[in-house]
Design a protein that fits this description.
Blueprint (H helix, E strand, L loop, with lengths): L10 H12 L6 E4 L5 H9 L9 E4 L3 E6 L7 H10 L2 H11 L13 E6 L4 E5 L11 E9 L12 E4 L6 E5 L5 E6 L6 E3 L10 E10 L4 H5 L3
Antiparallel strand pairs: 1-9, 2-3, 3-4, 3-5, 4-11, 5-10, 6-9, 6-11, 7-8, 7-10
Length: 225
C-alpha cells in the first residue's frame, strides 16, 4: 500500500490496532490520525469537489448533506485513493485490524464516495442498513477519512457515538484533516452529527468507504426480503 501512512502497516502496530479495535466503546472502533501520507491528504483537501459537483443532495427531516461517487468527475487523486482502498492488500489489512475476515468494497455508490455538508448540515443519530439491497451482501464496517483543515470546535460536526439504548453520547470524533474513523456497523452502532455552523466557504468533507462480507446466515438475508 503506497498511499497509507506506513506507520499503520507495520506488523507490530497492526497487532496493537487489532486489540484497540476490539475494546472500543460504545462499540468497536478506531480513530487513526495522519492516516494517509501527508501529501495525499493535502491533495484530497485542495481538490475536493464543490457541493454542486456531487450527484446526490439530501435535505429532509433526518439529514442535510450531499454525496457523490462520480469519481471520473473528480481530481485523479480520488480514484487513486479509491483503488488502494479497494485493493486486496487493503482488504487484508482491514481484516487483520478488525478481525472480520473476507471484507470487500462494492464497486458502486454504496462502496465508496464523498460526503459534504455546508452551513446547517446535520445527520440524525441512526444505525446503518445491514444488507446491500442489490448485491445481497452484509455491511460490516464503515471507514470515514475526514478532509477538513483548520476545523474549529465551535463549528460542531463531530461524529457522535451513542450507547446501545441511545441514552448517552459516549464519544465524539471531530472531523479533522486526515483523521480516519473505522467502526463496526451493527444494530447498536448509533452515530451521527448535530447541525453545524460554518463561515462562508467552509464545508464538512469526508471520503467514505463501506466494507461488506458474503451472507452466510440465510435468516439474516430473509429479514430484508
Amino acid at each position: 500500500m503506497q498511499l497509507i501512512n506506513p506507520a499503520y502497516t507495520d506488523p507490530g502496530r497492526v497487532a496493537h490496532l487489532a486489540a484497540e479495535f476490539q475494546t472500543g466503546q460504545p462499540y468497536k472502533h478506531l480513530v487513526l490520525d495522519n492516516f494517509l501520507r501527508d501529501d495525499v491528504a493535502a491533495r484530497l483537501y485542495e481538490q475536493f469537489p464543490s457541493v454542486e459537483r456531487l450527484t446526490k443532495h439530501w435535505k429532509g427531516l433526518n439529514e442535510n448533506k450531499s454525496e457523490g461517487s462520480n469519481f471520473p468527475d473528480f481530481d485523479p487523486v480520488f480514484s487513486q485513493v479509491r483503488a488502494e482502498i479497494m485493493s486486496p492488500a487493503f482488504a487484508q489489512w482491514m481484516a487483520q485490524v478488525t478481525g472480520i475476515q473476507g471484507v470487500f468494497v462494492t464497486d458502486d455508490n454504496l462502496g465508496t464516495g464523498l460526503h459534504q455538508g455546508g452551513d446547517g448540515s446535520f445527520l440524525d443519530i441512526h444505525v446503518d442498513f445491514n444488507i446491500h439491497h442489490e448485491k445481497n451482501v452484509h455491511r460490516r464496517l464503515n471507514m470515514l477519512i475526514y478532509l477538513n483543515r483548520d476545523w474549529k470546535e465551535e463549528y460542531g460536526g463531530g461524529m457522535e457515538m451513542w450507547n446501545a439504548d441511545m441514552t448517552r453520547m459516549e464519544k465524539i470524533v471531530m472531523p479533522h484533516l486526515n483523521r480516519c474513523l473505522i467502526f463496526e456497523t451493527s444494530d447498536i452502532s448509533y452515530h451521527g452529527y448535530s447541525k453545524i455552523t460554518l463561515p462562508p466557504g467552509q464545508t464538512r468533507k469526508s471520503f467514505y468507504t463501506y466494507f461488506y462480507t458474503p451472507i452466510t446466515d440465510k435468516a439474516l438475508l430473509n429479514q430484508y426480503h
